[in-house]
Amino acid sequence: MWKIENTDTIAAISTAVSESGIGVIRISGPDAVEIADRVYRSPGGKKRLAKVETHTIHYGYIVEPDAAVNALQSKPADVIDEVLVSVMRAPRTYTAEDVVEISCHGGVLAVTRVLDAVLKAGARAAQPGEFTKRAYLNGRIDLTEAEAVMDVIESKNRFALQNAVSQVQGTLYRRIEKVRKEMLYQSAHIEACLDDPEALSFESYLPEFSSAVQRWTKELSALLATADSGRLMQEGIRTAIVGKPNAGKSSLMNLLLGEDRAIVTPVAGTTRDVLTETITVGGMTLIVTDTAGIRETDDLVEKIGVQRAKGAIGRADLVLYLIDSSTCIDTEDREILNLIQGKKIIILQNKTDLHTMTDERQIRRMASEAGLGDGIPVLPFSATEKTGLDELVSALRTMFFDGKLSFNDEIVITNARHKELLKRALESLKQLSESIDSQMPEDFYTIDLMSAYEALGEITGQEAGEDLVNEIFSRFCMGK
Ligand code: GDP
Q1: Fewer CB within a 10 Å sphere, N or C end of the chain?
Q2: What dotted CATH number matches 232-401?
Q3: pLDDT recorded at residue 6
């Protein structure tokens, strides 16, 4: 693995810079404790952080660096804030270096002034993600664990969070490394056969090797198969709400949001813009786009809305199609069905609280005539009476997560980079299988085996180059 020597000491504000209860300034590196001592003053003025036990917390003040040196002479005006300072000596720290964390009062001014004092005392301002990058470069965590740290921060729902937390603990890393270890072992064996064909027969070894290749293929395919639901879990299901004007799209959007964000009006064709909101229902995240009433129109503003609606349908993972069941189905509904061909669809038979003019049977017949297949869920719904929501949630679970949404021991691939590398590894294994089947000479095997091995190593970071690592950490937030 590529490594650098970290000789300097870095510092950053690790909490959000806004009005809050507390703010934390983190310092990491060989001089972390010494630098903290330059700005720290204990109530009695005598305590030196350099002398304290590791993993202990100390009450005191942050003062201007010069004032701390002459602790006993410092004036009250030199005091920047009243703080708690945590001193953690390497290696059992976040970065595996000496780390000091100063918890001060929250609020933009206090945290910024404390950071300024720490920088004046000799620390360098950290880059985004630099603490986690150091943890990686110092070998405390692998790349999957580092990336999962970011996923924890960005998790939008509890399942995504659970999965990210599990990956922070190295579950994905261990699964990948187990396969890599086996690959390395097999590769060494092939080399040995090539080196000494008299003593070791590759022929008799081939069945074992071939079954190992199949085992890896199965294992990695199973991981890759989780990637689609993983993306939907982590990023959310892109959902387009479609239906004729007045079908109740804005009402559904408001119901999901639990507040009146879209304008609900009894006049057809008034939802002109496209609204996008991220919401969580039943532990799932939906990125919902409420489209304007889809219909042909001469009105320019509305035309733009219709185009955007078509765009939203194109990008959607799911189309929620609302039908106003208090009116009759007409050609507009058929046009909508044509527009949403090929999508995952849930049809909501809305306004069931009113007199029914269109029932489930008619809806199914229309969908079937449009060639949409018979399996589409058609759910009775009322946006105003708020009925049908539970059925909608369970239909979503069935459709996107096989009905289950508890990722206890399961590892779910949520990262697009991991997904691509798994694909690459599987591609190499496929070529390897083909070489075995067509009885190619054995030195062919090691080439494909090694390229699968390296692709997996890029996931964990064992084979990742400097540029890739820099790019990954540059996406981190400040102070992490
Ligand atoms: P959109 O044009 O599809 O966005 O439809 P709106 O959400 O603006 O709704 C149009 C009208 O239908 C409004 O007057 C809503 O109050 C009404 N509406 C929506 N859903 C229901 C429902 O389930 N039952 C009843 N009775 N009225 C509804």
Answers
A1: N
A2: 3.40.50.300
A3: 53
- As given in the structure block, the two tokens for residue 219 are 């294992």
Confidence band of 1 (pLDDT split at 50, 70, 90): very low
Q: What pLDDT digit, counting tens, does each position of 133-142 carry? A: 999 999 999 9
pLDDT of residue 401: 82
Residue to substitute in 242, 251, 260, 387 for testing ligand 1 pocket (most ligand atoms within 8 angstroms of CB): 251
pTM of the full predicted structure?
0.73
Q: Which helix (H) or strand (E) holds 436?
A: helix 416-437
Q: What angle do CA 424, 425, 428 make, to 5 degrees?
A: 90
Q: Does 382 contact ligand 1 (Cβ within 6 A)?
A: yes
d(CA 342, CA 340): 6
> In the chain, where does the domain assigned CATH 1.20.120.430 lie?
152-226+413-461
Which residue is closest in CA terms to ligand 1's atom 24?
351
Condensed to tens digits (0 to 9), the pLDDT of residues 358-377 reads 899 999 999 998 888 778 99
- CB–CB of 268/276 below 8 Å? no
Q: Outline where 326-415 has alpha helix (H).
A: 331-339, 360-369, 389-401
Q: Report the distance separating Cα 156 and Cα 179, nearest Å.
A: 31
Which residue's CA is minimally distant from atom 10 of ligand 1? 246
Cα distance between residue 402 and residue 461, in whole Å: 31
